[in-house]
Amino acid sequence: MSVRKPEPDLQPLALFQEWFAAAVASGMAMPEAMTLATATASGRPSARMVLFKGLDPAGRLRFFTNYDSRKAGELDDNPRAALLFWWPTLYVQVRVEGRVVRLPAAESDAYFASRPRLSQLGAVASPQSRPIMDFQQLLDRVSTLAHEIGDHPVPRPDNWGGYAVEPDAWEFWVGHDGRLHERFVYIREGATWAFKLLAP
Ligand SMILES: Cc1cc2nc3c(=O)[nH]c(=O)nc-3n(C[C@H](O)[C@H](O)[C@H](O)COP(=O)(O)O)c2cc1C
């Protein structure tokens, strides 16, 4: 399975959507899993996997998390991130860099409401990125919450919601034998994109 190669006149977002659809169609596990890299204000980087949850109406890449987590703290101080997708079934990777903003509460509400109930309870119960005494206590808290909430909808906690990454740089990487890979870069320049090829 192959993908369309980037060209100067293509819109990188449209190309990303095409490649993502191809990754989904390739049947690989979790094509929506992406590495999210953030950094402290002093430049210390950290990376973790999160799930790409589609585009917002402005064409920004969404993910959802805990607003008290390590990543959220780093984004509060330094609201830029890098994203990385690796789709081995296509032998391509996509790098994205950009400014990060929190999604409006209504968008986070809508996504939270669509999640499986156990994930909702887990989001409420888990103080993400903070030390806990023991794992069983966390499971007990989920059970207690489930009991307390009963059949009612689980309300979205204030400290859980979405972010949107507004790309200002894209790199589309196409792997080939003999490490002669192709690298296509789009850098935002005002309303347009500067296009470059990079050596592998
Ligand atoms: C495949 C995969 C998908 C994940 N998706 C998310 C996600 O969408 N949101 C999230 O908060 N954590 C997700 N996690 C957990 C994060 O990698 C990470 O452990 C957590 O967000 C805490 O990161 P932090 O302490 O750097 O903030 C995922 C982990 C894996 C392996």
TrEMBL record:
Start and end residues of each Pyridoxamine 5'-phosphate oxidase N-terminal domain: 24-142
Top-rank EC class of the record's enzyme: oxidoreductase
UniProt-listed Enzyme Commission number(s): 1.4.3.5
Record GO terms (molecular function): pyridoxamine phosphate oxidase activity
Family: Belongs to the pyridoxamine 5'-phosphate oxidase family.
Pfam family, any one: PNPOx_N
Keyword Flavoprotein included in the entry's annotation: yes
UniProt keyword list: Flavoprotein, FMN, Oxidoreductase
Co-factor(s): FMN
Protein name: Pyridoxamine 5'-phosphate oxidase
Annotated source species: Nannocystis pusilla
